[in-house]
Amino acid sequence: MFSCTVQGPPEHPVIKLSGSLTLEHSREIHAELLARLPKADVITLDLGDSEKSDLSFVQILCSLLKEQDKAISFTSLPPHLLENAASLGADSLIKEISNRTEDNP
Hints:
The protein is of the alpha/beta class. The chain has a single domain, classed as STAS domain (Transcription Regulator spoIIAA, 2-Layer Sandwich). The chain is 38% helix and 28% strand. The protein has helices at residues 26-36, 55-65, 79-87, 91-99; strands at 2-7, 14-21, 42-46, 50-53, 71-76. Strands 1, 2, 3, 4 and 5 form a five-stranded mixed β-sheet that branches. The longest helix is centred in the first third of the chain and has 11 residues, at 26-36. It is globular and about 35 Å long. InterPro entries: MlaB-like_STAS, STAS_dom_sf. It comes from Desulfomicrobium apsheronum. Pfam families: STAS_2. This is STAS domain-containing protein.
């Protein structure tokens, strides 16, 4: 199961992705994020209620973080995401998203 809720104004949405962030839902995740990108200067992703992720979600994040004109931040990073990225050898992704968490000084 996957769900997406959005709070805040279109120019700075907080996008909450919940449930399974896996290949099964990758088109829907991708579509939800693409729908918000043109209107937003700043995007905050809340992944705290996600249950699992896989390579497809890691790829979506890598692509999203390449958006030079967007400020992307995270409210929380679930252990499964960090474990997946580590198992894929995506150390630079782990560092990048960790630096973009709102609780990171």
